[in-house]
Each structure stands twice: as C-alpha cells, then as structure tokens.
C-alpha cells in the first residue's frame, strides 16, 4: 500500500524497526524540547501530513519502551487519523509517571498502524439474537 505523505520535518519518514513490526515509529518535530511534568499532556508536532486511503484509518499508538521506561502514553489511545484529514499529524502525549520527562526533537514518540475499517448502516430492530453470554458484561466471563 502506498500513502501520499508530505514531510516538512528534517527527520526520516516513519519506519518499521523490524521486519514483522505492525507499527511504524514516528518522531517529534520540535524547535525546542518539551518538558512534561507528571500528569501533564502536550500535543507534539511531527511535521507530517498524510492522505489516508478511503476505507482505512491510521492509528496512533503508544511506544511500549516509552511507556515502560518513562510512563509516557497517549491520552486518546489509539488515536485515529481519518481518510479526510489533511492537517499535520500531532501526537497527544501524557506523562503518567511521577517524574518530569523531556521530549527531544527527533525522538520516536509513537507508532502508526494502518487499519482497514468498515462503514456501518444501523438496522433498528426490536430484539437481538440470544447467546450463551447474554447481557453479562465486565468480568462476567471469568465467573462461573
């Protein structure tokens, strides 16, 4: 699949780090570092503009290394870039640790995953089919 992209940053395009990776790492495009205090969030620019094909979305997901080592995640995880969005890709980072974290220019801050999706048409009905689970919700499948 080819996706049109404009790169206004001075960093390489998002790339897979291993042969079978699902996500491509994306980098911060900063004129100066951003310091995230504990529980603070920031919208971090990437300098990238994408044209996602209709029927697909670009998911923006946290990087496991940043999450594990520094408590850095995404506020809206996964974030979705829709096929009709043409603005700059920005990543909404949050510091969930008890220590400050400094985001540097060029740092790999998130990963991007392309996913196909369906567009649904609602069908209003009076009843739904029966299943063994029924209306059992949160935690109900682990209790017998």
From TrEMBL:
UniProt pathway: Pyrimidine metabolism; dUMP biosynthesis; dUMP from dCTP (dUTP route): step 2/2
Keyword Protein transport (UniProt): no
Known EC number: 3.6.1.23
Cofactor: Mg(2+)
Annotated residues for binding of substrate: 63-65, 76, 80-82
InterPro entries reported in the protein's UniProt record: dUTPase, dUTPase-like, dUTPase-like_sf, dUTPase_trimeric
Catalytic activity: dUTP + H2O = dUMP + diphosphate + H(+)
One GO-annotated biological process of the protein: dUMP biosynthetic process
Keywords linked to the UniProt accession: Hydrolase, Magnesium, Metal-binding, Nucleotide metabolism
GO molecular function (one): dUTP diphosphatase activity
Family annotation (Pfam families): dUTPase
Highest taxon in the source lineage: Bacteria
Domain dUTPase-like: 12-142
Protein task: This enzyme is involved in nucleotide metabolism: it produces dUMP, the immediate precursor of thymidine nucleotides and it decreases the intracellular concentration of dUTP so that uracil cannot be incorporated into DNA.
Annotated family: Belongs to the dUTPase family.
HAMAP family: dUTPase_bact
Protein name according to UniProt: Deoxyuridine 5'-triphosphate nucleotidohydrolase
